[in-house]
Amino acid sequence: MPKTVVLVYSGGLDTSVAIPMMREDYGFDRIVTVTVDVGQPAEDVKSAEDRARAMGTEHYTADAKKEFVEEYCWPAVKANGDYQGYPLSTAIARPLIGLKAVEIAKKVGADAFCHGCTGKGNDQFRIEYVMRALLPETPIIAPMREHNYTRTEEIEYARVKNIPISVSADKIWSIDENLWGRSIEGGHLEEPNYAPPEEIFQWIKGIDAANAAPQILTIGFENGVPISLDGTALDGLSLVTQLNKIAGDNGVGRVDIMEDRLLGLKCRENYECPASTVLIKAHAALEALVATAAERKFKLMVDQQWGELAYYGLWFDPLKDDLEAFIGKIQERVTGTVTLRLFKGSCVVTGRASEWALYSEDLASFDSKTFDQRLSVGNVQTHGMQSRMYWALKEKMGK
Ligand code: ARG
After folding, report:
1. In 3-state terms, what secondary structure has residue 101?
2. 3-state secondary structure of 35
3. Cα–Cα distance for residue pair 209/78, rounded to 1 Å
């Protein structure tokens, strides 16, 4: 029986280096590589395939784009998914990548998993959690973490072992891409006070290069799910793909934040999140029209908790189901349209409409008598009664 390991393979440096290691240092004779297509550039998927074959592995590519949009991005929209200003693009793809690796592991009868995550990031937690949840007996090897390698040491190892990688010591950015966004790390960006150079951005134009005229866009939602662009019904994958281009051309969706990683490491992070930024903004605007004040206030807490769970990668946590039960109930009314104006990096909601709107122009208008203003008199007099009592007492006691 060959000793089989399933390696989650991106085609990048960390995971390519893992291939000879699995053979030489860990004694596996059957290396099965799995690349999950979540919308990273098609040439990356192809070059991962080519590299894996060149290095003699048994390779699988899982096209998970549709599943990613419908089962990961859409729940994120419903929860206005955010962590510290980051639309969670890398985070929500990791459970799906883990899931696909588990499917292949079951199919090939794997004796172990291997991944290329380092010991500093969040991905080790996200990916191992899914593997352990679904195949608890299968050991997980993380050679990069075990060896405590620096990036420079890895590049040197790759050179010695003749690994066909395209990174070099002067190609410094570490990139992660999928349909929900693009993350750029490393190099000078690790210095929080260093302004991100234009060269790191590939999806979103800078203010100077962005479209010269504003673009008005209408997004249709049904039960919290985006279903159309400017009145044209679109499947999820097409909608996200088109919106990435439109928002990117208008300079919308660049993110530059300090992020608190799971381990407590504070890190400077840059993202390009065009479609996710616009969709979440639009979705939140529609919720503001259809949800009660109390629901909105409560949902802010639920959304925040959802965002944290998603960031931690705890995709199968019962709390996530519980939160989604609440989120899903409200989404039954999140149907309608939102109009936005995109221009030179700004994205502003200019209109919203829904059959479920808890809004009556007739009640709110300055020009209407439907709401008898005299009804407010008693309410106004009792408003803040306890705080008035407090101030009166303070005065009385001379405090
Ligand atoms: N900090 C982000 C996260 O944990 C993104 C990490 C992406 N990795 C990269 N090599 N750019 O979700």
Report:
1. helix
2. strand
3. 32
For 253-292, where are the alpha helices, taking DSSP H only?
A: 274-290
**Exposure of 315 in the CB half-sphere (CA atoms within 13 A):** 27
Q: Whose CA is nearest to atom 4 of ligand 1?
A: 122
Q: With respect to CATH, is domain 4-176 assigned 3.40.50.40?
A: no
The best mutation among 14, 94, 129, 185 to test binding of ligand 1, ranked by most ligand atoms within 8 Å of the C-beta, falls on: 185
Query: Phi and psi at residue 219, in whole multiples of 5°?
Result: -110, 130
What pLDDT, on a 0 to 100 scale, did the predictor assign at position 13? 86
Among 83, 120, 144, 269, which residue has the most ligand 1 atoms within 8 Å of its CB, making it the best to mutate?
Answer: 269
Residue 373, token pair as written in the block: 């203003």
Residue-averaged pLDDT of the chain: 95
Residue 140 β-bridge partners: 113
Domain ranges of the chain: 4-176, 187-353, 364-396
Q: Is the CB of 172 under 6 A from ligand 1?
A: no
Cβ neighbours of residue 246 under 8 Å, at least 6 residues apart?
215, 217, 274, 342
Band (pLDDT 50/70/90 cuts) for residue 361 is confident
Percentage of the chain beyond pLDDT 70 is 99
CA dist., res. 161 & res. 20, Å (int): 8
For residue 27, count other CB atoms closer than 10 A to its CB: 9
Q: Is 122 in the pocket of ligand 1 (CB under 6 A)?
A: yes
Q: Quote the pLDDT of residue 169.
A: 60
CATH topology of domain 187-353: Argininosuccinate synthetase, chain A, domain 2 (3.90.1260)
> Separation of 398 CA from ligand 1 center, angstroms?
57
